[in-house]
Design goal:
The protein has 424 residues and is α/β, with parallel strands linked by helices. The chain has 15 helices and 13 strands. The chain binds pyridoxal-5'-phosphate and zinc ion.
């Protein structure tokens, strides 16, 4: 039998490398302001003869992302770690369709993953591949979700996890990672986190599940492959119809590019006859929107601004993110914190989904693009809700009010004063 997994390949210059621990992007075409990403390449002919649409559909959901193991970069079944990630619902957002005057709005609800974010798809693959490389210690620099997911999968794989955390992570996030046994080290600056992680990877041989590269982020090319399964599932859930737009909250763009790569796999295998347009939902910093506007072929740092959407509040992004947008004739749309808060309430109050602020950015972006006439009201739109709101409730700034004494008048006046709600 021919080898299914061929190697790594640069998406810019095309240089090929064997499957190896190359986590810093392509060494060949790197410059002082540019780094390209490497992708995993496969022998699609060999894979075609082994798989079919029905084969994937028939496999049990308990396999997690490994339901699609032939299209994922791990060789040996004994290394395939799963916590039951993926196989999330694609919800037809009927109430929001009415409210927003849309015809075909879908929500891919990734907040139901094992650690409640879509990073579980990435970490399932990244940690499994780590086992294949014989890794003992996993490490990542994170605003929370990547760390929590790395911690959970490392725990199950029997690896240690050392997590470099953003100083603003919530208490919940810290406890979450500690529960899995990870050593969590908050570091004051992003440069500092990357500097330390770089040393741990290069000098101690620790295994990175995420990026530590500059001038542009690269990431773990095996982990990025995990996000392809979002595309496979969406296509199955739409009965092999293709959405017009897929809107993804984006920071480094592993999600955006991974999902795009998944659609391309299905196109190459002949399961679908076209591909969607990929849309990056960004905070007001908008590094991808900036690169597109300037027409440059790299992503430059934009000036830093605070945002409640911590998981996507980066002022730089990757070459692969830019490529996913350009190659798909897609878009990047920054949104403000107030648009994001509005979208959190819309998702919760109309569809029963309480998203993390970063995740709500995908709906906020959808609304903005519709209002600006950049996306048609009857388009088939899939918004990816990447994580759950419970991890960090600070963006909604509620404080539990002091308790009332249980007299009827107190109760009715509390409803009136606090909620402007009159009993009828
Ligand atoms: C990591 C993360 C993102 C951004 O993913 P990238 O691959 O870095 O673009 C979006 N939303 C949530 C909730 C995340 O944790
Ligand atoms: Zn290259």
């Amino acid at each position: 039998m021919k080898r299914r997994i061929v190697g790594l390949k640069c998406i810019k210059c095309g240089t090929e490398y064997p499957i190896s621990k190359l986590f810093n992007g392509c060494p060949s075409c790197r410059t002082d302001k540019f780094v390209s990403n490497l992708i995993v390449t496969y022998d699609y002919e060999a894979i075609s003869s082994e798989i079919s649409k029905d084969l994937f559909l028939k496999r049990p959901k308990e396999l997690g992302v490994w339901r699609y193991k032939e299209l994922l970069p791990v060789e040996n079944e004994k290394h395939m770690i799963t916590l039951g990630e993926g196989n999330t619902q694609l919800i037809r957002a009927k109430n929001l369709e009415k409210k927003l005057h849309l015809r075909n709005l879908y929500i891919k609800n990734e907040s139901t993953n094992p650690t409640w974010s879509y990073k579980d798809r990435l970490c399932s693959i990244a940690i499994s591949k780590g086992l294949e490389f014989g890794a003992k210690v996993a490490t990542v620099s994170t605003t929370g979700n990547h760390g929590a997911s790395t911690a959970a999968y490392a725990a199950v794989a029997g690896m240690d996890a050392v997590i470099f955390a953003h100083p603003l992570i919530s208490e919940t996030m810290f406890s979450f990672m500690r529960a899995y046994g990870a050593k969590v080290v908050p570091v004051s600056t992003e440069e500092g986190r990357l500097f330390l992680m770089n040393k741990c990877v290069n000098e101690l041989g620790w295994y990175p599940t995420g990026t530590f590269s500059r001038p542009m982020p690269t990431g773990n090319p095996y982990g990025t492959q995990g996000h392809k399964t979002i595309a496979y599932e969406v296509i199955e859930q739409l009965n092999f119809n293709v959405p017009d737009y897929v809107i993804v909250p984006t920071a480094n763009g592993e999600g955006l590019y991974g999902i795009w790569a998944g659609f391309n796999d299905y196109y190459r295998l002949g399961f679908i006859d076209r591909v969607p347009r990929m849309v990056a939902a960004e905070t007001e910093m908008g590094p991808l929107a900036n690169a597109l506007k300037k027409g440059i072929n790299y992503v430059e740092k934009v000036s830093a601004k605070e945002s409640i959407a911590l998981s996507i509040a980066g002022n730089i992004s990757s070459y692969q993110a830019l490529r996913a947008i350009r190659d798909s004739d897609g878009l990047a749309q920054p949104v403000s914190d107030s648009e994001i808060v509005n979208a959190i309430y819309l998702l919760a109050r109309y569809e029963g989904i309480f998203p993390e602020a970063a995740s709500a950015a995908s709906l906020a972006t959808t609304i903005r693009l519709i209002e600006d006439g950049k996306v048609e009201r009857d388009a088939v739109i899939v918004t990816v809700i990447t994580s759950a709101g419970l991890k960090d409730t600070r963006p909604l700034s509620w404080k539990t009010p002091p308790p009332i004494e249980p007299q009827w008048e107190n109760f009715t006046s509390f409803l009136k004063q606090y909620y402007n709600y009159t009993i009828i």
